[in-house]
Specification:
This protein is 45% helix and 17% strand. With 336 residues, the chain is of the alpha+beta class. A four-stranded antiparallel sheet has the order 1-2-3-4. The chain has a four-stranded antiparallel sheet with strand order 5-6-9-10. Strands 7-8 form a two-stranded antiparallel sheet. A hairpin with a 3-residue loop joins strand 9 (291-297) and strand 10.
Length: 336
């Protein structure tokens, strides 16, 4: 999730755990700090754009390593405030603020390596968009109310309500995703599309309009479904996946890493002698956030070292009006 959501979640968790045992600003502050610490891995340069992508949300997002880190961090906070008698409580607050960060991230589609050091599998439920105000606002209001009330009972109750509402919104996202997945599967079957891989994720800033990507080997298919659509169906557009380039690129480590990280949701294309690999999970046709030049054609393809990132920015002038209207069930072709 975005940094503001993680800060708000950490602060709300800190306030909920510490209650009136310490000043509410202290618990909110250190909860917010712990809630944002895992994302400091973005400051680490792994040498190239693809490595930076696949190694984000790695060790710093592992509950195993975060649990170990929480012990000295909590001890330091307790000692700083002269509250060593509350060390165990501070540890619980810091630990929860740390581990809820990757658990929330895992609800997005990006890929969070929760199992390190035992497995580097990137977990991604994909039931919430990386920025969703309906998740973040209850946390901000609840934690803000608690701070404004300086830890009075109403403020603490508001903070608890904010946590409940935000968690309920995550649960709603899973339910809505399941409904959208059922509709997508039925639509694929009705249209005779033999999908080998299926991805269903929310579009930007909401959980009403869902983007569906189906991969059938040579092609991928993109469609959209709103929970307010009059008829439960998805109309798909078909696009070439560049499968013919796969064999030529099979020996390039960066291609192997990204294809594994995306769990097969990628496309390949060649333009003016350069070959690109694109993560199909984040963005929509024709604009994607993660797009990399990985090879140059001479007599044969030769890897580019380092690969170059060329991700396109969304066309907000066209995209946002379409998103708003399509979200409420209006049948509109996506902007291309």
């Amino acid at each position: 999730m975005d940094s503001l959501s993680q800060i708000a979640l950490g602060a709300a968790v800190g306030v909920a755990v510490m209650g009136r045992r310490t000043a509410v600003w202290k618990s909110a502050l250190w909860g917010a700090v712990a809630g944002t610490l895992p994302d400091l891995d973005v400051l680490i340069d792994h040498g190239d754009a693809i490595s930076n992508m696949v190694l984000h949300r790695a060790e710093t997002h592992s509950p195993f390593w975060l649990t170990l880190a929480s012990l000295p961090l909590a001890a330091g906070v307790a000692r700083l405030h002269g509250q060593m008698a509350l060390w165990r409580r501070w540890w619980l607050a810091i630990w929860l603020a740390l581990v809820t960060h990757p658990l929330l991230d895992a609800m997005t589609v990006y890929g969070t390596q929760l199992g390190l050091p035992f497995t580097n599998h990137p977990y991604g439920v994909g039931s919430v968009f990386i920025v969703d105000p309906l998740y973040t606002l209850p946390l901000l209001v609840g934690a803000g109310w608690a701070l404004a009330g300086r830890g009075n009972s109403r403020g603490l109750r508001a903070n608890a309500v904010g946590l409940v509402l935000s968690s309920a919104y995550l649960a709603w996202g899973v339910i809505a995703q399941a409904q959208a997945t059922r509709v997508a599967e039925q639509s694929l079957m009705a249209q005779g599309i033999p999908a080998q891989l299926l991805l269903v994720t929310p579009t930007a800033f909401n959980s009403l309009l869902w983007r569906v990507v189906a991969v059938d080997g040579e092609h991928y298919h993109e469609g959209f479904y709103s929970l307010f659509d009059a008829q439960p169906h998805v109309d798909f557009d078909r696009f070439p996946r560049g499968a013919a380039l796969a064999n030529e690129l099979s020996g390039i480590p960066h291609v192997q890493r990204l294809s594994a990280f995306t769990k097969g949701f990628y496309k390949l294309r060649e333009e003016a002698g350069r070959v690109f690999i694109t993560d199909l999970r984040m963005g929509q046709e024709p604009r994607y956030i993660f797009d990399f030049a990985v090879a140059q054609r001479h007599s044969a393809l030769r890897a580019l070292e380092p690969p170059e990132q060329l991700g396109a920015r969304p066309d907000l002038a066209r995209g946002l009006p379409w998103l708003w209207r399509r979200m409420w069930g209006e049948e509109l072709p996506p902007p291309r």
